[in-house]
Amino acid sequence: MVHSALLNVMIKAARKAARGLVRDFGEVEKLQVSLKGPANFVSLADKRAEQTIREELANARPGYSFLGEEGGKTEGPDKTHTWIVDPLDGTTNFLHGIPHFSISIALEREGTIVAGLIYKPIGDELFLAERGKGAFLNDQRIRVAARKTMTEAVVACGLPHHGRGGLELFRQEFAQVQDRVAGLRRFGSAALDLAYVAAGRLDIYWERNISPWDIAAGAILVREAGGYVSDLDGNDAMFAKGHVIAGNETLHRELLQALKQAAKGEALKG
Fold this sequence. Notes:
By secondary structure, this protein is α+β, with helices and mostly antiparallel strands. 42% of the residues lie in helices and 25% in strands. Helix 4 packs across helix 8 and helix 5 packs parallel to helix 6. The radius of gyration is 18 Å and the shape is globular.
């Protein structure tokens, strides 16, 4: 498959950073048995990967702004374009030697995400999407799942991180969803959750307390695969509000209603 010049830039950056992550992942597995543990090592792996991606993207598209998980926002001369990057999504998995993590790169143009890439180095799975051109996994077209009933759906979710709050609301949401679906999953990489929805491996996904770099690339993947992505109010303010829900049209609507009921119940308790 012939990729656009833009996607080629993104692919080159992701693959170069991935080589370092795969090497570092092998070291992390060894560090599991040490007293010091791998936490500091993983922090360096994150930063090295982001620096590699930043340099590759800057060489190809000088002047673009950059928003990364590790380094924050850097304004470039061209403020109409911003790279949105998570160099290692699934850090906790990486930290524990679990081979489920990814690199996420998206390009925002004048407030709209126009291209997205999610790369899973372990397994060599490359998810790509460009606005109006469809979504692909290793150059094969992908579509969201066609299931129409919640009882058949496998649903992914995020769990509240220690110290962030929101646990009681999540318990309400979990209770609303658990009895309606075929299964609930927590994989630990928001980017891959969205990529899996785009590929039809998961039917629906939702999460709160999420950052733009976690979901920017995944959002365009799901939309280009025929799915729906919104915040948990049903609007398009995922970045501003920090929550997201994705799936096909029918299941997106049904899960959104269930989550709204949970939020209403939690508000009444308060």
